[in-house]
């Protein structure tokens, strides 16, 4: 599998765990409302460990410093766009109180423009 595609797939997995660690306790409040904040923090750290198990290899595999196709700037912008896609999917699928608005879409379009400009020579 090409290093660029593998990098993106690993970043998607990483962001799935990150989103769950950061926002899962809010979306799944009914299942976790009796759990203390300290326990939620520890649970989130446990989930975030898996984020790092995907994030660090993704950055290493994708970095030009290790034979990958992406500069650090490009890796960061790819990461941010993937974060928003994964987060948006998570919110739309799991949250009953949130909806996608026009201003969210406009903001995402600005990020796509950021990708365009970062990848320009």
How would you sum up this structure, described in words?
This protein has one domain (3-119). Helix 1 (3-27) packs across helix 4 and helix 4 (72-94) runs antiparallel to helix 5. The longest helix has 26 residues, at 37-62. The chain has 5 helices and no strands. The model has no long low-confidence stretch (mean pLDDT 91). By secondary structure, it is mainly α. This is Membrane protein. It holds the Pfam family DMT_6.
SSE layout and pairing:
Blueprint: H1 3-27, H2 29-32, H3 37-62, H4 72-94, H5 102-119
Distance between the termini: 25 Å
Uncertain runs are none
Taking the sheet with the most strands, its summary is:
none
- Give the oligomer, counting copies of the same chain as homo and different chains as hetero: single chain
Q: What's the Cα radius of gyration?
A: 16 Å
Helix content: over 70%
Continuous helix count: 5
Number of strands: 0
% residues in beta strands? under 5%
- Pairing-aware structural class of the strands and helices? mainly alpha
What's the domain count? 1
* Structural shape: flat
Pfam family, one: DMT_6
Organism: Alistipes communis
Protein name: Membrane protein
InterPro entries: DUF486 (IPR007437)
């Amino acid at each position: 599998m090409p290093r660029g595609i593998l990098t993106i797939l690993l970043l998607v997995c990483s962001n799935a765990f990150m989103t769950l660690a950061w926002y899962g306790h809010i979306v799944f409040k009914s299942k976790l409302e009796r759990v203390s904040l300290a326990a939620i923090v520890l649970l989130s750290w446990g989930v975030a460990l898996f984020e790092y198990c995907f994030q660090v290899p993704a950055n290493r595999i994708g970095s030009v410093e290790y034979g990958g196709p992406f500069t650090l700037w490009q890796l960061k912008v790819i990461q941010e766009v993937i974060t928003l896609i994964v987060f948006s999917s998570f919110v739309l699928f799991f949250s009953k109180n949130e909806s996608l608005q026009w201003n969210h879409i406009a903001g995402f379009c600005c990020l796509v423009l950021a990708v365009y400009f970062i990848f320009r020579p």
